[in-house]
Specification:
By secondary structure, the chain is of the alpha+beta class. The chain has four helices and five strands.
Length: about 150
């Protein structure tokens, strides 16, 4: 067993892992408090992952959660790079395919949290943070792996 697995087995999490987990818990609570219905958390399909999938009315919302302890190095928003956006779009497509919801209206939101524990996070919600309607057109974007 390698060192990482030993630490995980012993219940040890690095501080940034604990911070990220607390941020995702706070983000899910924030979304629920604002009328969203959580459908999935940390959904995975091979190398693709979605932090939170929820529903607001009839819209499926794919939420990327970015948590930082401070804004000293630019805060969480700059971490949602174009490459990260493409990765999220692939994951969203995989989720839609897995749930046969291709025709459902959907969007991508980003929740940026800054703080040091679950009780002191500030939350900034970017609705429709980036567009992926063209990527979902006809279920056949040029970059789809299938």
């Amino acid at each position: 067993m390698n060192g990482r697995r030993k630490r995980q087995a012993a219940g040890y999490d690095a501080p940034h892992i604990r911070l990220g987990r607390a941020g995702e818990d706070r983000a899910a609570r924030y979304l629920s408090e604002h009328g969203f219905t959580i459908l999935a958390r940390n959904w995975r399909n091979h190398r693709l992952e979605l932090d939170i999938v929820c529903r607001e009315g009839d819209v499926i919302v794919f939420v990327e959660v970015k948590t930082r302890s401070s804004e000293r190095w630019g805060g969480p928003a700059p971490a949602v790079t174009p490459a990260k956006q493409r990765h999220l779009l692939r994951a969203a497509q995989a989720w839609l395919r897995a749930h046969d919801l291709w025709l459902a209206p959907c969007r991508c939101d980003v929740l940026c949290l800054v703080g040091d524990d679950e009780n002191t996070f500030s939350v900034e919600h970017f609705r429709n943070a980036f567009d992926f309607s063209a990527a979902l057109d006809s279920r056949n974007a040029t970059w789809q792996p299938w």
